[in-house]
Each structure stands twice: as structure tokens, then as C-alpha cells.
């Protein structure tokens, strides 16, 4: 949600644990030091699994009010905002008084923040994860499940009860839904990568840790479904706090704030007030919903992590990924792939295009794809520029500029065609449902996909227009040059 969280979400999305072990659960003997007396029975007992409150309906105000009461009793100072049903984001924080521009709000004390150092209601489980050096994200995902399973005996029970039972992120879309609704958008690939990342992380934890301590981590509680839930919560609520060395944290109350593309204010830890705050960048009148920014994210990235798409044309950070590939029939295919790999790239790459233009990395990749064998000595510098690892970014090769622009135009046009096909056919998508709730879900997902594809296609149309105009200008420049040359030729004749 904070500006700093952007890098986390947009790069290596899931912390890396090795993803290669997908073998079925092995039940090994329990470590004697861990399996002490009734160590776990306090919390994660399988018969209670069904009673565990994995959050509530996304618009439940009952649990939200209980959360607010508990936070106040636990040290949250008096607030200038209240938690209410809102038009944007279902539940959100609404101004109770006049709020000035530049005012600090929230003041959530560290004791009400969940971080990788938070105490576990079941300390043995926490110790096992820490002994195994589990990184922050899977650690927090396991922590949330563990605390949820402790129900009322967890100090976070009011917080967990107010979390959405099914976060809106793309983690909850089935493969068939992704294939049907996001067929045109590159976000589909990113969603699949993310789902695979979560699955791999869970499988790794299961084989390395959970299966060795089944009493601490019973599969009835710590399974793929509950991990999908906890990762969904992390993707849509976790923040990085720049003033605390980018520490990741869940900040109850602050995470009830919804996102607006029109504000540029982020959550952070404020050393002077020793609390998590944000500073408004506009005034609010009583009754108005107060917003923060979840970071400079494209509509696709907002859909991926948070499950919503801003209104068309309202997101200045919006972009559409263009996918480009080396040509397999290129005589230099092997050499080009080698230099790309050397600089961390592959035979197919995605580059984000904005309404204002394309990145220099894409142009460098295009140069490499179209460059002839005679330019082999420049392959390396093109790959370096494409990989974003150089200060000398603005490469220009006038002799192949036209081919590079044409290559980008061809890719852009074939991508536009996919969007057009999806958008034209979206009215006739077979919803194939058997219940009213299913039809609601399908219509909801379809609307999100149509909104996303419309905004991405708009960016590609603009890119197509600019590319066509440049190519036309280059051609007319060439023609002008040619006619001047012909004029000289006649003169000398
Ligand atoms: C950090 S939570 C914000 C609180 C949330 N509304 C709640 O009731 O729990 C993020 C979630 O809020 C919703 N949300 C935030 N900003 C939104 C927006 N501009 N439009 C639609 N939904 C939004 C999305 O469901 C997102 O996954």
C-alpha cells in the first residue's frame, strides 16, 4: 500500500523458497523438543477448524465496529475518521471533522502493528519458523493462519474477524476465469506466476517444516486454501514502512483506508509521534471518505493485488505490458539469446507502456531483435540497455531505427487485436453458471476484465498512433532526401 511497497509487489512477488518439492505430505516423527506436553492443543485443534473465523464478508460492518472498539480499548488514540460503509471500497475511513491539508492522521502505536517480530500466541510455532529462517512474507502468512486458529485466545482475534473472508485479489480467480476474462492482458501471466509462487511457497513450507511438526501445523489448518487466504490478505494489506528500514507490517485500522489515484500520500512510521501515520495532501469535509495511495501502480497491478480497477483515464500511473520476443528464424537467434540471458533477460519479455510513451528498455530490445548479423558487435550493449542496467540508456541506431519501430508497431497491433476480440466478444461470453451467486461473481469478474482491457487497449491505441506517425515522418523524410538527391543528380548530369 505504501509507495515503498511498490517494488515488492511489482518485482519478485513472492519471497523465494525453493519451489521444487511438490511431493505429497509426509508425516515424519515429531521433534521431541517441540512436541512438549499440550503445547499446541491450546490453539490449533482440528475439530475447531470449521469454527475458525477466516474473516467476514467484505462489507460486514458488525465485525468492523467490534474491531474499532477493541482498537480504542487497546491504545488507539481518538480518531478524526470513523469506519463506515462507503461508495468506493465497500468499507472505508470517513472524515468525522474538518481535516486540513497537511494534517497527520491515524497514530497507530507499534503495539497494534503486526510485524515479523510480533509475538505468537503459539510461541513454539513461531520459534520453529524462525529457526528455519523463513522469510518475512511466508512467516507472516503462517502467523496470520496460526493466530486465526487460536480464535479468541489470540490478541488479534478482533482484527482477524474483520478481515475479508475472501480478499478480492486475482489469487482467487480460477485458471479458467483467468483464461476466459484476461486472455488479452499480460496481467493474466502475472497472476499465474503469482498463484504458482504462493503454491510453491506453501509446498516448500509443508515439506520442509509443517510435515515435520504436524502437531504445531496440522494440515487441517495450514493448507493451500488457508495460505491463499493469508497471502491474499498480505497482498492487499501489507505495507512497507520506509522510516523503519522498509519493514513490512500489517497495520490494523490504517488498512481500512482505500486507494485513490488522485492522492499522493503513503503510510509511514513517524518517529516523533512513535506511531504509524499519514499526512493528508488535501482537505476533507465531515462525511467525505479519506484516501491514501497504495503506490504508483498500473490498473493491472491494482487488479492483481487488490481486486479493483480504477475508472478509465483516472490513473496517471497506468500502463499496459507489451510482450515482445526474439524471432526464432533469426540467423543470430543463439547469439542474441546468449547476450540477453547474460543480462538477466529471456527470448520473450514484457515491457510496460504508458500513455506518455514506451521505456527505453523496450526500444533497446527491439533494436536487438531486428539488428542484422553485421551489427553483432553491438548486441551486448543493446542487451545491457534492454536490461535496465546502464546509464547510457538512449541508444540510437539510425540504420535500423525504422525496423525497430516497425517491430514495435507490429507487436502493438497484434496485441490490440486480442483486446478488440475480447471486448467485442465479452457480451457473448458463456457464463456457464448454476446459481445466482455464481452469476453475480461471473458478471463482477467480467466487468473488472472489461474495465482493465479497455484501459490497456487505450494505451496501446495511443502507442500505435505515435509509432505510425513516426514511421510516416521517417518515410516522408526519406522521400524528401531522395528527391533532393535526384535533383542534384540531374544538376550534375
Ligand atoms: C487495504 S484494504 C482497504 C479496506 C477495505 N475496503 C476493507 O473494507 O477491508 C484494500 C481493499 O479495499 C478495496 N479497495 C481499496 N481501494 C479501492 C478502490 N479505489 N476501489 C475499489 N476498491 C478498493 C479493495 O477490495 C482492496 O482489496
UniProtKB/TrEMBL annotation:
Ligand binding (substrate) = 237, 255, 269, 294, 306
Sample GO molecular function, one term: protein-lysine N-methyltransferase activity
Which ranges carry the SET domain? Answer: 79-295
SUPFAM superfamilies attached here?
A: RuBisCo LSMT C-terminal, substrate-binding domain, SET domain
Query: Which species?
Result: Kingdonia uniflora
Gene Ontology annotations for the cellular component aspect, listed alphabetically: chloroplast
Q: Carries keyword Transcription regulation?
A: no
> Matching SMART domains, A to Z?
SET
Q: Where does S-adenosyl-L-methionine bind?
A: 237, 258-259
- State what protein this is by name: SET domain-containing protein
Keyword annotations of the record: Methyltransferase, S-adenosyl-L-methionine, Transferase
Q: Which Pfam families match?
A: Rubis-subs-bind, SET
Gene3D superfamilies (UniProt xref):
Rubisco LSMT, substrate-binding domain, set domain protein methyltransferase, domain 1
An example GO biological process term is:
methylation
